[in-house]
Known about the structure:
By secondary structure, the protein is mainly alpha-helical.
Amino acid sequence: xxxxxxxxxxxxxxxxxxxxxxxxxxxxxxxxxxxxxxxxxxxxxxxxxxxxxxxxxxxxxxxxxxxxxxxxxxxxxxxxxxxxxxxxxxxxxxxxxxxxxxxxxxxxxxxxxxxxxxxxxxxxxxxxxxxxxxxxxxxxxxxxxxxxxxxxxxxxxxxxxxxxxxxxxxxxxxxxxxxxxxxxxxxxxxxxxxxxxxxxxxxxxxxxxxxxxxxxxxxxxxxxxxxxxxxxxxxxxxxxxxxxxxxxxxxxxxxxxxxxxxxxxxxxxxxxxxxxxxxxxxxxxxxxxxxxxxxxxxxxxxxxxxxxxxxxxxxxxxxxxxxxxxxxxxxxxxxxxxxxxxxxxxxxxxxxxxxxxxxxxxxxxxxxxxxxxxxxxxxxxxxxxxxxxxxx
Length: 392
Ligand code: ADP
Ligand code: SR1
Ligand code: MG
Ligand code: MG
Ligand code: MG
């Protein structure tokens, strides 16, 4: 793995990648048992694989963030792959007989990398894993004034969906009983109370506070996070959960947008891949920062006490497990508020037919309720993705 967390493909990962990329899987006739893969790159810069199945073949080229023939000591923008892909498409349009066709270009790798980078850096460097308690306390104090925005979140995320409120709305009449069930679910209320306490009491890091996917602006090679007006020192999982929760909503909304000739399946696979890789890459980058700064100023785990590999591993596992379960809990809470609370998401709202929309929303709501209650039973993000696929 390169220093910025980019994961080079190898022959084993390539099989997984091809399976998860429908356009490539189709090219290979969905026959994955008999794949022949050979790395044939003989140029100076990139890695090139020929992938052959009994019924088709393709070439997969990957640019790593350095010059191949030199190694990591000579960094080079991996976004060159983007320019290669758009030039191939442009030239291919002009002279298709003499330019290979681009079946697929993986833009998503940029978004996933950028957003995981953003979350890992903003959350790590503002936490006690990096700051002294003195610096952390003065930073927390600086944000204590953002009371009204915090109170808005307390109300619309952690309170209103669980009681009768004039602001709540849902796809009525189809979801009337579903909304009522949320208000009557004692176990759900128990869990949301725990998360509300954490949101109000845990000054873990400077969080964005509203990191839904609408706060992330993307192009092919750039990702910009906007709109941090809810920023304060709160639980890290609230940010990661917001992003992941919105992706889960997007997943469950797709069936409502399917039309003849476009079943949205490839997009659903892309969303699942994005969820998995966002968490996994965040995990890698965040723990890498922790390793890099283990002898730094951070006072959560003083080197004098924790500077041996066994105890470091233990604290890291415990910390990341709690963060994972917080992420799932806050993500679920934010999904529920987007279905029965005041502010909804375009993914569902743009499904014109109410009955169809309600079917999608109900699936998402049921998934979220279960996730909120059972979040501690999930050990990995792939288990979450499997649960989504099972419900689908
Ligand atoms: P709000 O706080 O009301 O959600 P946002 O800051 O999210 O407002 O901005 C609303 C919209 O304005 C965004 O979804 C985006 O379309 C546009 N916008 C905001 N900031 C920028 C920016 N820096 N560059 C381009 N568009 C932006
Ligand atoms: C009245 S609630 C409005 C919502 O929009 C903001 O972007 C936040 O998500 C807030 O909860
Ligand atoms: Mg060349
Ligand atoms: Mg805003
Ligand atoms: Mg906004």
